[in-house]
Predict the structure.
Amino acid sequence: MALLVVKFDLKKRVKLAQTVWFMYWFAVLAGILVLSLGLFFKIELRKRSELMDNNESHFLPNVLIAMGLIACGINAFGGKVCYDSLDPTKFAKWKPMLKTFLVFCVGFNALLIVTSLLCFIMRIPLQFTLAEGLKNGMKYYKDTDTPGRCYMKRTLDLMQMEFRCCGNDNYRDWFEIQWVSNRYLDFSAKEVKDRIGSNVDGQYLMDGVPFSCCNPSSPRPCIQYQMTNNSAHYSYDHYTEELNVWRRGCRDALLSYYGGIMNTIGALVLLVTMLEVTISCLLTVFIQSIHIVLQNCFLSEISDTLKRTANLSLSLFCFLSVSLSSTHTYTHTHTVMGTNRQLLVFPSDLMSRLM
Amino acid sequence: MPFLSLKFNLQKRVKLAQGLWMLYWLAVIVGIILFSLGIFFKIELRKRSEIMDNNESHLVPNLLILVGMLSCGLNAFGGKLCHDSLDPQKFSKMKPMLRPYMLLCCGFNVLLLLLVLLSFLMQFAVYLTLAEGLKNAIRFYKDTDTPGRCFMKRTLDMTQIEFRCCGNNNFRDWFEVQWISNRYLDMSNDVVKDRVLSNVEGKYLMDSVPFSCCNPGSPRPCIQHHLTNNSAHYDYDHRTEELNIWNRGCRQAVFSYYSGIMNSIGALLIFTIVLEVRLRPHCRSQSVTCVLKGTELDSQTTVTYRNHFALPFFFWNFILFPLRLIAVSMQQKRKQWREIHILLVEKQELL
């Protein structure tokens, strides 16, 4: 507020231009960060698309990449405008575009807020895709000779080892499906015939899990087969044994992994949004200072546009912050509401000064 | 001793100082890379010190960290020297330090050469340490209740999974040790008693491997036990089966990983030596001619010097922007703005 009371002499204007220029370059870096985050998330989704039925939505990473590129463009342009702003001949070239540029900035900030909200919300469709994909993954584990599914076994084994999980909800999911291919079953053996005859679907079910479920931290060598049969192994009680195989289900493990990525990206995009809003406010103040000095009647036009865009951004901010606070933790709402308060005071004071 | 016999007029000297200043900053960055490589290598050695008997030599990473820090310091000082060499007042202050600095640089180059040699030769030591360490690791695999060795099983399992290997030379190393603890063996069982009695030392040996030897890429579920017994499994021939468990030995796998790191370090050090050797004669000739022609410098040269450095400073702002955020060189930008301010005030344009 003190900035608006004091008359803008040359020294202060130069300092303000310097600050805004510097912040624009920082914002270009932030745009590059958003772009790389989008690329990283896209790659992570693509890596495990087999476990999601090749059906996962790439909407969010594509939006992030687009926003990153637009951010770089807008901020680079803004930096150039700031750099030329102290030279009246160069600035005259940019003057007509300033109004539309400010409108663009505000629209872009709104889009950024929507993006960060998406990051937190898109977790839910991902949960359903993962559940479906993992169930099918386990069903096709044995089909290593079927084209299109021959790498499912390897993918699932590697995933269970990497994420330290077993089965969909827990290891008992492996007891309900046949995960040994018929090619490797001796149908003339009595034991095999008994097992197949013992259930309706004619599947070879057993109380065993694949080797990728084994926990390396177990003090005893891994017990994979006959897990519920205490007498099959010396000094073994399957009710109390905890370290033998991984106890967590893979759906939980994968969801918490992707959820963590999305939360981090959402938080970072929120930070970038706050930075952009701060820059827009500073740019507004700076343009005001230039126009006061040049005594242009373009001033009233700008003030009208500013009033409209400021009100729009304000209302958007209020609405989105309220909806955010209802869906996420208190730390995020704390920072958003803080910026909200600033924005409330800035434009109203600005407008009163101009009138 | 002049390295180059060209006559250095002012224009050429300024251009040379400019180029040298950039090269010095490149050398500082290379020094930082060397430092971080040294830390990375040290961490990698420490991570797997258990399979090397806690006995591995940390000489190469320690020297690399030292060399990285020295390189940063020496090259930053050299850059400052070149920067000031066109200004006679500043240079007369630096003149006495020139000779010891050159000697220090020669010593540093010798140290770099020594480190290159070490990084290629110490690979033999790593190989021998690995061989010994892995042999002991396989022996202590079952001792999960002995303090000091209780994590050996987990370390070895994780190593075999990560490096896709089995045993020391190959998977048959597991047939020669007892890798199941006696706690989990039913000594009253006939099968167990037979096995234990069948060898001199009374060990429970079997033709099986731990689960971490399994290859996830195998089309059939992993066969860990009775590996040499074809009749124990349906449609199985252990002589032709290739995808069931990893075929490579862990000594070879882990060694090729470490030798890859050490070769890259050696290559980067050779590049650093070439860079350093190129920098020395140029800077020396620059400073020598400056000393000789010190009397010719006047106020004009300081203006030219500032103009010539304005452009590369702006260039560095773009490329090294994140570094400049941290570095003191932000001051240069503020100087530019101050100059614009002065110019404007003088012309009274916007008042």
About this structure: Chain B has two domains: 10-139+250-334, 171-246. Confidence is low (pLDDT under 50) at residues 1-6, 290-328 of chain B.
